[in-house]
Design brief:
With about 350 residues, this protein is an alpha/beta fold. Helix content is about 30%, strand content about 30%. It is built from 9 helices and 17 strands. The strands form 5 sheets. The chain has a 6-stranded mixed β-sheet. Strands 11-12-14-15 form a 4-stranded antiparallel β-sheet. The protein has a 3-stranded antiparallel β-sheet with strand order 13-16-17, with no helix packed on it. The longest helix is centred in the N-terminal third of the chain and has 25 residues. The radius of gyration is 22 Å and the shape is globular.
Length: about 350
């Protein structure tokens, strides 16, 4: 190989390295969104995987990460960066987030949304957020995952087990040192609907007792009809509250999978549910390929399927033509627009 050939090859290698670095950097962009989602959330970090913009018809898994108590804030430019302290948003911010995850021979590139809450979020706050994300992003609604640490771990437990509808909406959860009181009823809900759970905790946690995780996993697996798969737990044999650094480290694996690969192996049959603003409101269960009904007076496109309306024991079923829409007016009157 002569001198010119060696120079040419070296230049090509340098160009390839620059391109690869550029591609990796682009895949690690995390954008602050100062968007009022509800009264408890005015902003979040948005991570869109590589290929998101260039594939308009492709749907992507969604991972929602819920921060701890120390990262509460008003979602402003001054406070939102607190969310970058831990977990997936920290990995993305440090350029150490994998561009994709390979599970059972398939590549997955999840959207990652990291909201900031003003105060401890309720299951309702979480559901409003998830509905907003489903309506805003190209989400594969069979692959919605929720995880969080400390306060966020408790929020993850409480949200996913809040109702049968929510439990069926979530494909898997990873609560980390979850700060919530375990409930046999909530454990039974997760067991009944076979919600995949991998919970982690440190053995000697001075802030949130390890019994929270131990008892929740016991309640789920000890239900009258145990779930498939059984809930699993990892209790790290260390002291301190920080179980999240190990848990969220992509290099930490059990049975060959890190927590992201573990979540992504699970999916749910798509089902979109809306419950109105009062206890007597209609419960609208609809099977369709796109669209949700976040509130009354909202038009939603339904590509195919049936709409089932239930109220006080009364059931109405309607077959909706492809491309039709329906609107639920004040008073919960159903209007089909062909």
């Amino acid at each position: 190989m002569n001198y010119l050939e060696r120079c040419s090859r070296l230049a090509a290698l340098i160009l390839l390295s620059v391109c690869l670095l550029s591609s990796t950097g682009q895949a690690q962009v995390q954008t602050p969104r100062y968007t009022k989602v509800n009264l408890n959330c005015n902003g979040f970090y948005e991570y869109l995987p590589s290929g998101y913009a260039s594939n308009p018809m492709q749907k992507f898994p969604l991972i929602v990460f819920v921060h701890g108590l120390g990262e509460l804030g008003d979602g402003s430019a001054a406070k939102l960066p607190l969310v970058l302290r831990n977990g997936p948003p920290k990995l993305i911010n440090n350029k150490s987030w994998p561009d994709s995850f390979t599970v059972n021979g398939q590549w997955h590139k999840p959207i990652v949304i990291s909201p900031q809450f003003i105060k401890w979020p309720t299951p309702g706050d979480m559901d409003t957020l998830v509905n907003h994300l489903m309506a805003t992003y190209k989400v594969d609604r069979s692959r919605i995952y929720v995880t969080g640490l400390s306060m966020g771990g408790g929020v993850t437990w409480n949200y996913a087990s809040n109702s049968a509808a929510v439990c069926r909406k979530i494909a898997a959860i990873v609560p980390v040192c979850g700060a919530t009181t375990p409930s046999t009823a909530r454990g039974a809900t997760m067991a009944k609907h076979n919600l995949p759970v991998w919970a982690t905790h440190n053995q000697t946690d001075p802030t949130v007792p390890v019994s929270n995780t131990d008892n929740y996993v016991s309640y789920i697996n000890g239900a009258a009809v145990p779930p498939n798969p059984l809930a699993r737990k990892t209790i790290f044999p260390v002291s301190g509250h920080d179980a999240w650094s190990n848990t969220y480290n992509p290099s930490y694996r059990e049975n060959g999978k890190n927590v992201y690969e573990w979540m992504l192996q699970f999916s749910r049959e798509f089902n979109s549910t809306w419950i109105g603003g009062t206890a007597t409101a209609w419960d609208n269960n609809a099977n369709w390929s796109e669209g949700i009904v976040p509130d009354a007076n909202t038009n939603v496109i339904i590509n195919s399927g049936n709409v089932i309306m239930r109220r006080n024991g009364e059931v109405k079923s309607l077959t909706v033509a492809p491309g039709a829409s329906f609107r639920v007016d004040a008073g919960y009157k159903l209007n089909i627009i062909q």
